Amino acid sequence: MDRQHGEHLIAAQSRCEVNRLSTDNAINFWTETTPELRRGGLGQAIHNKVQLGFLPSLEYAYSSDLRTASSERLDWGSTSLKGRMTMTAKADAERFQSDANKYAAYLETPEGRLRSDLAFANLQDFLPLQAKAPLCALDLGGGTGATAVRLAQLGIHVTLLDSSPAMLDIAKRAAHEAGVTEKVLLQHGDATQLANLFHTRSFDVILCHNILEYCNDPSAVLRGAACALRDSSAILSVLVRNQAGEVFKAAIQAGDLAAAQNGLTAEWGQEALYGGRVRLFTPDSLRAMLTEASLAAIAERGVRVLADYLPPRVSRSADYERIFELERKLGCRPEYAAVSRYTHCLAHCVSSVAEESA
Asked: Would you state the torsion angle of the CA atoms of residues 193, 189, 179, 36, taken in this order, to the nearest 10 degrees?
């Protein structure tokens, strides 16, 4: 590892209070990964179907997958519950590993951009950017690093945690191309193991965007995040799939009235990008999980209220800015946010938990 990278890792260790094991993983990442990056932008790399993945010699301390909900119908037979969870985690690990390029490409589509841009704009409304010391953020399941890079460009030091080496490889390239490698620390690990990865009260901002849908125990992730928030002024940003949005999608987009009817009480929806099942949330169920984790919502927003249902004559690309501005206004109004495709909740930790974690 060169001197510059070494200094960056030491600085990140001090600023974000990452424990020794976390730092060791980061050092392994930098020392054992090819130092020279391919030229060209991320979009071009995807277009050319560049093979992304870490070198076989790279080892990680954590091998369990971040997103652990089953998305395939498997023949369980007499397999125990623990065995089923292990098989499920393995299936999802392979899916998110092999389809990293597919996800990166999705983020370049108008739909993917809109989801990311709206969530980031909502988050910016609550970021305490006037703090005297640089903020430290944790991006859980940060995937390809799209949001981590944007946070780093605001001067925030970001630790990106993900279970997919292929996703982390893309994130590494994205950080390099954006010139923010000194502010982005990449770590392989499981979001349900936050207590074993980071000290309590380590982060000013924690992102939990589109990962609870894939977790066997989303409440465990929220509890871990609550303990990792620095104090009651720190922000937790949670983005989840909205059950009502799936009902509208089935009826309006697919014209499937039976699916829309079933969706009124469905706990699981269909994942279009990867296939299989994805957990659905209602605003009430999400609030209940937050309360259980001693977190309190300070704002709720809807993400993609009507963009998915616009007629073909409206260009998602040419009219992107107009769609974005309209979605911003709709998402802030509860009556429209209630039927959005995604629910975005900004929350903070109640004072008692912050004090107990000290």
From this structure: 160
Beta-sheet pairing, 205-209 with 184-188: unpaired
What's the token pair of residue 42? 């991320």
With tokens 């390239």, the residue in question is 173
Beta bridge partners of 140: 161, 208
Phi, psi of 351 (to 5 degrees): -55, -40
Q: What is the DSSP pairing of strand 295-303 with strand 277-279?
A: unpaired
Question: What would the DSSP string read from start to end of 210-260?
Answer: S-GGG-S-HHHHHHHHHHHB-STT-EEEEEEEBHHHHHHIIIIIS--HHHH
List Cα–Cα distances, 191 to 41, 84, 133, in angstroms: 29, 19, 26
Cβ–Cβ < 8 Å for 268, 70: no
Per-residue pLDDT of the chain (358 residues; tens, 9 = 90+): 444 444 444 444 444 443 333 334 433 433 333 333 333 443 333 333 333 333 222 323 322 333 333 223 223 333 343 443 443 445 455 555 568 889 899 999 999 999 999 999 999 999 987 767 789 999 999 999 999 999 999 999 999 999 999 999 999 999 999 999 999 999 999 998 888 899 999 999 999 999 999 988 999 999 999 999 999 999 999 999 999 999 999 999 999 999 999 999 999 998 888 778 899 999 999 999 999 999 999 999 999 999 999 999 999 999 999 999 999 999 999 999 999 999 999 999 986 444 555 5
Looking at residue 122, its amino acid is N
Give CA 289 to chain center in angstroms: 17
- Indicate left, alpha or beta for 221 from its phi (over 0: left) and psi (-120 to 50: alpha): alpha
CB distance 188 to 26 below 8 Å = no
Detail the DSSP E strand segments found in the chain: 136-140, 157-162, 184-188, 205-209, 235-241, 268-270, 277-279, 295-303, 342-349
Tokens coding 169: 């490889």
**Which residues are 289's β-sheet partners?**
none
